[in-house]
Amino acid sequence: MKIGIITYHFAHNYGAVLQCYALQEYLKSNGHDVSIIDYRPRAITKFYDVVKLHVIKTYNPKVIIVNLASAIFSGYSRANKFNKFINNKLQLSVNNTEYDLIIYGSDQIWNTHINNNDKTYWGYNNYKSTISITYSASDDPTIPKDLNFIKNALNNFESISVREDKLAIELRELTNKEIYTTIDPVFLLPKKQWFTLSNRAPKRNDKYILLYNLTQDENIKKMAEEYSYSTGLKIIEIVTRVSAKAIFNSNAYSKAGPLNFLALFRDAEYVFTSSFHGTAFSIIFEKQFMSYMEHNKERVCNLLKELGINERISRNIAIQKIDYEYVNRKLELLTNNSKNYLINNTIIN
Question: For the chain, what are the domain ranges?
Answer without folding.
Answer: 2-46+90-186+334-344, 191-318
